[in-house]
């Protein structure tokens, strides 16, 4: 979605279409990472010496170097992009005039994303062991992390869209003023959308994650496909969304809404004469 556009920027349907497209990005990024072994040494701090005194992991070093270049070309001035590392240099390009779609906030859940990715995701999609392809596996790790980060932080746009719905705004205002996290979570939750998403995701993962024979047949798990024919198990992708991506997206929505009234004047409030 072009965030420089001003019209219809917060249409919930358009935002949901972005999340649907990001499903493809995430599935293919996971498939690319799954080509390589776990390469656990790339996640352990202190395994390599770095000329600038950096003491973290190979992935951390690679990610920070990548983000420094991306920061220089103003990637993180976009309201849908959030870095994992700091400090980052100022952009060499003039900042773009994004419409003020989101309420000012400093929400960044990338440390949670990194923890869950390393603990819960990589070990399930990669073969154990070390294939020495450290640069390749780290490159795919960065692509997975960036895609997951974009998807989860899109929760801010979704939350703003829901807040601006006239039919729900006063209810959100009451819940926010009461600091009612559970009430906000319940109001923003759409179980129908979530269930449809998981059904669609399983179909995508089964099709994208399998080779297609010359005849055009797709060999699926329940048709006796062997692990070598599965680029990534559909169950892993569905479980990733159900236990991590969706819950963390909703946490971002709740955190965003809890701060939505900071410095905000309710236009519907009657001014006392
Ligand atoms: C993103 C939305 O908000 C919530 C989070 C969802 C998700 O992370 O996929 C789906 C539905 C909602 O429970 C939405 O309403 O589309």
From TrEMBL:
<dbReference type="GO" id="GO:0006571">
    <property type="term" value="P:tyrosine biosynthetic process"/>
</dbReference>
<keyword id="KW-0057">Aromatic amino acid biosynthesis</keyword>
<dbReference type="InterPro" id="IPR037039">
    <property type="entry name" value="CM_AroQ_sf_eucaryotic"/>
</dbReference>
<keyword id="KW-0963">Cytoplasm</keyword>
<dbReference type="Pfam" id="PF01817">
    <property type="entry name" value="CM_2"/>
</dbReference>
<keyword id="KW-0584">Phenylalanine biosynthesis</keyword>
<dbReference type="InterPro" id="IPR036263">
    <property type="entry name" value="Chorismate_II_sf"/>
</dbReference>
<feature type="domain" description="Chorismate mutase">
    <location>
        <begin position="136"/>
        <end position="253"/>
    </location>
</feature>
<dbReference type="GO" id="GO:0046417">
    <property type="term" value="P:chorismate metabolic process"/>
</dbReference>
<dbReference type="GO" id="GO:0004106">
    <property type="term" value="F:chorismate mutase activity"/>
</dbReference>
<keyword id="KW-0028">Amino-acid biosynthesis</keyword>
<dbReference type="InterPro" id="IPR002701">
    <property type="entry name" value="CM_II_prokaryot"/>
</dbReference>
<dbReference type="GO" id="GO:0009094">
    <property type="term" value="P:L-phenylalanine biosynthetic process"/>
</dbReference>
<dbReference type="GO" id="GO:0005737">
    <property type="term" value="C:cytoplasm"/>
</dbReference>
<keyword id="KW-0827">Tyrosine biosynthesis</keyword>
<protein>
    <recommendedName>
        <fullName>Chorismate mutase</fullName>
        <ecNumber>5.4.99.5</ecNumber>
    </recommendedName>
</protein>
<comment type="pathway">
    <text>Metabolic intermediate biosynthesis; prephenate biosynthesis; prephenate from chorismate: step 1/1.</text>
</comment>
<comment type="subunit">
    <text>Homodimer.</text>
</comment>
<dbReference type="InterPro" id="IPR008238">
    <property type="entry name" value="Chorismate_mutase_AroQ_euk"/>
</dbReference>
<keyword id="KW-0413">Isomerase</keyword>
